[in-house]
Amino acid sequence: MKLYYHSTSSASLRVLIFLSCRGVPKSKVNLVETGIEFDSRGIPIWTIPSDDEEFRKLKTNDYKALNPEGRVPLLLLEDGKKMTQTGAIIDLIDDLLEDPSPLVPDDPFLKAEMRRIQWIVAADTQPYQNIPFIIQAMGEWGMKKAEPIKHPLRKHFINREFSAIEKILENVSGKFCIGDFVSYADCFLIPQIRNALASDISLKRDFPNVNKVWENMLALPNVLNIFKEAGGIIQPIVINEQKLKKYV
What is the model's pTM? Predict the structure, then answer.
């Protein structure tokens, strides 16, 4: 299997953290980092690396030829089948492994709580705080002009959904989101916290339970190393400032 990802993508980091915490060997899932270019708005777009087999097959570096959604990550199976969306990718990899997943609680209610946190991040937080969404809101929909990373709309959605997660964690968290063992919920939440820190969200003051999970995850050397390799514990926001200024 091959996983196409980019280190600046928080969705990609969900899967990388899952693979590491699940102990999936690199021989099982080959990691391929996409290239990066910028559209006329200054927003990053992904490209197929020129040394990748799919580039030779498709005869283009247009990533949409590989994934029409245009998003990372993408899982390419040995038989040519493709899977997108982080939750589906993680579920598929886990199902293809022989042993039961230590990242999924046995208790049905706790498993549902894990899923709830996952989807609050993936469905209710990430899309509305995403930099391309904020840039489009400024450029096309008359939204207030402000620094995209710290835009009031972005901070609104982060604060709103983190407040919900904070309440959930009061009842189910231990060291991590669900008790004292890493689960899918942590794999989803931690990259989102990394995004939030770039927006000057006061994690320790406003979200102590979320902060506890964050600090305990960073105490895991494998997780910390993923962030270090991806540019640090605060997400670097990659945009073309010159194109962005012209667009908005």
Answer: 0.96
